[in-house]
Amino acid sequence: MRKVYLFIFFFALLLPSKAAHLVGGEISYRCVGSNTNGNVYQITLTIYRDCNSSGAPFDQSAPITIYGGAAQNVAVQTLNVARGQIVGIPAVVANPCLQTPPNVCTEKATYRANVTLQPSTHGYTIVYQRCCRNNTITNVGNSGAWGSTYHITIPPQDSVCNGSARFQSDPPIVMCKDDSLNVDFSVLEDNGDSIYYSLCQPLTGGSQNNPAPNPPGPPPYTSVPFLFPYSSSYPMPSNPQISLDPNTGILTGTPTGTGQYVFAVCASEYDSSGVLLSTLRRDYQFNVTTCQSNVLSDPTPQIYQPNTLCNGTTITMTDSSRNASDYLWIWNDPNNPGATSTGQNPTYTYGDTGTYTIQLVINVGWPCTDTAEVIYDLYNPINAGYTFNGPVCFDENLITFQNQSSNGGMAEATWDFGPNGSITSFNGWNPPPINFSTWGDQIVSLTVTEQGCEETYTDTVRIYRRPETDVSVQNQIGCAPFTVEFWDSTITDGQLIYNWDFGDGVLSNDSAPVYTYTDPGTYDLTLTVYFIEGCVDTITVYYDDFITVYPSPTSSFIADPTSATIYTSNIEITDIGADPSDDIITSMGDGSLYYNLRSFNHAYSDTGWFEVEHVVINTFDCPDTSTAMIRINPETLIFVPNAFTPDGDGTNEIFKPTAVGIKSYELRIFNRWGEEIFFTDDPDIGWDGTNPNGSLAPFGTYTWKVFSKGQNDKLINRSGILNLIR
């Protein structure tokens, strides 16, 4: 139920959506420095325009003229000032009870430039003119024919470089009929001079035939004529009549008629001697319209905040009101009479659960206050939950459930034990003991409802299989050292602890241990499994003579020698470790095998490395192997002929020694004067009987030298005489 203490109805004034022209402006200046040429002034022109207008656009470049002379009619300089950024003026009203009317839009453009002027006996006048005003202005006859003049003066002999006053804020673009005004037209002034505020006469400038004078005209300027009964001091119908405080620049009064009204505000600047320095004039058009009330108290109903129903006695309210400037929440709590809050979305804690009527009063003290109320039901959360206990082994399971949910004494409980329960469902606070027909995870749900609140709690009851234990190994018999991998085939659904006893005093708690028996013998095995979860139990399995470990033989032999040449390749093998009852197999690495020979000789038929494996197998078929590496080197031989005939008949053309069993080689040939005429380190390359320059060596006697190293690192250094026959 909504209680409204006061309604205020306003009827909207339909303003023209395409108003024609400019709506106001002002011009000011500041001193920004001095130089040898005079004072530097920054001139600022601000123009306001109806942004729905199709006419009188902002000038891309505004002509601003500076006049001087005794009559202020001598044009000193004309500035063509580029337009700055265009900025929109917000259409707002100061009264929160009223809605800003639609189709009201104003924008402004600023033109700013610097100019240097010498102090003048007569001062200067800065002026800009533009035509025309809106045709729909109420307080001026034939308003579309009148333009605007924005001007300001620089005082005579301005040696101190004075700056004019300037308005601090933009004017409002809309006023509401029958709504009291409090508009700030105060200015900023940088020199400590006195400011006197007044409502003054708007000035015209330009014409329909010359809407943008360039240059704008000199003083004097003509006032815009008001229609009776309007004047500069009474520019619009108002009661109380609008007035401007001369000291503060605050405009007050209450407009009583709708329409568009031209007016002007002047801020006159006087120095300490009372001399008028300049007058800042803002020429502006007010839009007065009938504003409509747009106030609605709207606390959010509980249906849109369902989480508050079962969340205890603390509640946070959500506001959905329109045009509320302040709030008063009345909680109507019998445990705390008079409790209120003033926040927009406050939080409050009631003394108890129950049903409460909450009121929201907005704009307290304004003519357009509004009140609404909502009803909230507040209940404590249910916090559903249960505990359970009882044997959980499958062959004896019987589970007792205890409801632990909080409630207000009117709660109802519904249980769901799943398809394996002895009963699948139960309605009541605590069910009878439940038996489950299979092992594994059983999902049990409890749903508790009270006062429209509902909560479900779900948990898992695990039913365990009765555990069983057995042990497996890959081999139970082996030779020392014998490594055994043990694993058990325990059946359980819970946690357990292992205790293995390998029969030789060594224990292990691993689940699948790997153990090495180093000594021959027969070993018992004991496994104890402690089941510490679910079916709490202890199972011990004992295996008598479970592991048999046989002794291993010893393989050891002597190979003499371990290095020989192909011409002396007899190797003697002698066993020094086998027992008389052991079998022996000896592999010589070249495909030869010897059985049960404890001593024998073997001759290799080729050179290279050979691995001898000596395998000893005892009566338990336990083997042992030892190895040795044998090196058979080729014999190192060098054969050198004593003559050759490089005469081109194809026979005995090259002198080349024959080298066998070598791994490095050098051949050098010297003439009879001891000069080396040939060298090679490749045994496949010989001397063809030529000199190093390619000429034929003469027949006669030559000396040769051979240096080589055999495969067994034996050094050979030989020399001799060679006959070259042609």
Describe the protein.
The chain has 726 residues and is an all-beta fold. It has 6 domains: 271 residues, no CATH class; 84 residues, Sandwich (Immunoglobulin-like); 78 residues, Immunoglobulin-like (Sandwich); 80 residues, Immunoglobulins (Immunoglobulin-like, Sandwich), CATH 2.60.40.10; 77 residues, Sandwich (Immunoglobulin-like); 88 residues, Immunoglobulin-like. 0% of the residues lie in helices and 47% in strands. It contains no helices and 54 strands. Strands 2, 3, 4, 5, 7, 8, 9, 11, 14, 17 and 18 form an 11-stranded mixed beta sheet that branches. A hairpin with a 2-residue loop joins strand 2 and strand 3. It is flat and about 150 Å long. The N and C termini lie far apart (142 Å). The N terminus is likely disordered.
Chain-averaged pLDDT: 90
Strand pairing plus helix content: what structural class?
mainly beta
Assess the beta-strand content as a share of residues: over 45%
How many helical stretches? 0
Number of domains: 6
Distance between the termini: 142 Å
Instruction: Write down the overall geometry.
Output: flat
Major β-sheet annotation:
11 strands, mixed
Counted beta strands: 54
Rg value: 60 Å
Uncertain runs: 1-20
The percent range for helix content is under 10%
